[in-house]
Amino acid sequence: MIPKIMAHGGAWEWDDALDTGKCTGLKEALSIGNEILQRGGAALDAVEQTVRSLENNPVFDAGTGGYLNQDGLVQLDALIIDGAVRDFGAVGGVTQVQNPITLARKIMEETPQCFFVGDGADKMAEKLGISLIPNEQLVTATMRDFYLAQRTDGPSDTVGAIAIDDQGNVAAATSTSGTPYKPAGRVGDSPIYGAGGYAENGIGTAGATGQGENIMRLLLSKYSCDKMAEGLTAVEAAKATMHYIDNIFDDSMAGVIVIDSNGNFGAAHTTPKLAFGWVDEQGEIQTAIKANF
Ligand code: GLY
Predict the structure, then answer these.
(1) Residue 139: CB partners within 8 Å, gap ≥ 6?
(2) Contacts of residue 14, Cβ cutoff 8 Å, sequence gap at least 6
(3) Is 178 near ligand 1, meaning CB less than 6 Å away?
(4) pTM (predicted TM-score)
(5) End-to-end CA distance of the chain
(6) Is the beta carbon of 10 within 6 A of some atom in ligand 1?
(7) Which residues are catalytic?
(8) Model pLDDT for residues 152-207, shown as the tens digit of each residue
(9) H-only helix segments in 57-174
(10) What angle do CA 138, 153, 47 make, to 5 degrees?
(11) 45, 190 Cβ separation under 8 angstroms
(12) 167 Cβ contact list (under 8 Å, min separation 6)
């Protein structure tokens, strides 16, 4: 089948001046993932490499440029899912890893466990051959100022990627530093299997973003995939997912991107903005900030 890839850079409200940077970052990241898919590579590799690019881009709330928590640390969460074998790897609260998504993948593939948190996750990174970095290396001047002002009003710019490859295998990846000035130890939806992401061959894949607590409460990405399992297309599943969360919570503040098993895209949000991108039928990378798919 024709491979497909989609990525997001968060759902929230933010200043229009930030839109261009987000779209440029999404395009750069998607070009990496798309190149992997176009040469016959795996969806899993494509989503990991797309998210690594977004983690390395200080524009987004993941990896470099993440928010500092109340203890003054960038504390990162990530999840990767291989929909071909129904497996996942996840990390929560890591502070010494540049690319938590790669640590999540190594946990999935090289350990019998699925999920590591805190110091144990950083220690596991070292055991798995990932060099630890000082936390300050993840801190940008903008985010330092944000922390010093004790601001909690920043957007949740969690990043994520979903893909289906030419073999029909689906994968999802998501990564974040969470919410601004969060209490130390707080973990949101992003690393939770079924909440921040989900993927299952024959059904599709989804990635959620926005205010994590409500997304976790509803396992929102799994909900999107359940809707596709019932026969909804990606567009219909994305809309149904936002309808679901919006009916339950007044302050849902969520977005979702979806690919169904036929390679159709869907995206929807209850927030004023969702930054997302995809590769269209002509092979061009498209981005959007306010649209629903
Ligand atoms: N969606 C990211 C978070 O709430 O941590």
Answers:
(1) 68, 74
(2) 154, 155, 157, 273
(3) yes
(4) 0.97
(5) 21
(6) no
(7) 158
(8) 887 667 999 999 999 999 999 999 999 999 999 999 999 999 999 999 999 999 99
(9) 100-110, 118-127, 141-148
(10) 50
(11) no
(12) 1, 42
